[in-house]
Amino acid sequence: MSAMGINKIAGAILTALIIIKVSDLAGDAVGQAQPLANPAYLVEGAAATPAAKIQAKSAATPGAITAIGPLLAAASAESGKSVARKCATCHSLKKGGKRKVGPALWGVVGAKKASRSFRYSSALKGLGGVWDYAALNAFLASPKTFAPGNKMTFTGVKRDSDRAALILYLRSLADSPLPLP
Ligand code: HEC
Questions:
Q1: If you measure from the C-alpha of residue 171 to the centroid of ligand 1, how many angstroms do you get, rounded to a whole number?
Q2: C-alpha 52: how far from chain center
Q3: Whole-number average pLDDT of the chain
Q4: Residues 135, 150: contact at Cβ < 8 Å?
Q5: Percent of the chain scoring above 70 in pLDDT
Q6: Residue 121 has pLDDT above 70, yes or no
Q7: Of 175, 179, 157, nearest to 79 (Cα)?
Q8: Does any ligand 1 atom lie closer than 6 A to the CB of residue 22?
Q9: Is a pLDDT exceeding 50 seen at residue 31?
Q10: Quick check: CB of 140 below 6 Å from ligand 1?
Q11: Which residue's alpha carbon is at the smallest distance from atom 33 of ligand 1?
C-alpha cells in the first residue's frame, strides 16, 4: 500500500476517534444536566407502570418536560396557591386585576397568549396559540427556554409537582375553568 493510502486510513481513524471522544464529552455534559434516575432501558418492558414510563420518557430525552396530565391529577390547587406567591410580585391574580410588572393572570389558563392589556415582548407575541396545559407547563418550567427573549425575569418552577399544583391553582382563577386534560 502506498504511503498516501496509509495516511488516509490513519486520518480516518483519527477522525473517528475524535468524533467518539467529542460525543462522549457531550454525553457527559447532558448526563450532568439531568442525571438519569433509572437507566431508560430497564423500564421498556411490559411490566413497566405508567409512572415508570413517564419517568423513562423524560429520562430518555434529558431536559424534556414531563407530561402534565398525570401530574395535574396528582396535584392540589391549595398547595398551588402558595407556589403562586412567587408570581404575585409581578402579576395580579384577582378577577378584574390590573397589569403590574407582568399582565394580569385571571383566566389565563386556556386564554390566547399575549392577549391582555400589556406591552408584551415580541418573543411572547410571536408565540401564537393559547395557554393550554402543555404550553403553560413548558413555559413555567423555564420561561427563557420556552420563549427566548421574553421579559419575564423568572427562572421557572423546576419541581414538576409544584408546577402542576400551580397550574391547577391558576386554572381555578376563572369564571369557567378550562376542562382538565
Ligand atoms: C419578575 C416578575 C415576574 C414574575 C416573578 C413572574 N412573572 Fe409572569 N410575566 C412577567 C412579565 C414581564 C411577563 C410578560 C413577558 C413578555 O411580554 O415577554 C409575564 C408573562 C406571563 C405569562 C403570559 C401571559 C399572557 O398574557 O400571555 C404567564 C402565563 C405568566 N407570566 C405566568 C407567571 C406565573 C404563573 C408566575 C409565578 C410562577 C410568574 N409569571 C412570575 C413577569 C413576571
A1: 15
A2: 19
A3: 80
A4: no
A5: 65
A6: yes
A7: 157
A8: no
A9: no
A10: yes
A11: 87
pLDDT confidence bin for 69, thresholds 50/70/90: very high
Cβ–ligand 1 distance for 144 under 6 Å, the answer no
80 lines ligand 1 (CB under 6 A): no
**Nearest alpha carbon, ligand 1 atom 40:** 87
Closest listed residue to residue 173, CA positions, set 86, 67, 91: 91
Spatial distance between the Cα atoms of 30 and 41, rounded to a whole number of angstroms: 17
- Confirm or reject: Cβ of 152 under 6 Å from ligand 1: yes
In 3D space, the residue among 111, 102, 114, 151 whose CA is nearest the CA of residue 133 turns out to be: 111
pLDDT digit string, tens, across residues 40-62: 443 343 444 444 444 444 444 44
CB 175 within 8 A of CB 148: no
CB atoms inside a 10 Å sphere around CB 68: 23
Model confidence pLDDT, tens digit, residues 70-96? 999 999 999 999 999 999 999 999 999
Q: Is 101 in the pocket of ligand 1 (CB under 6 A)?
A: yes
C-alpha cell at 163: 408546577
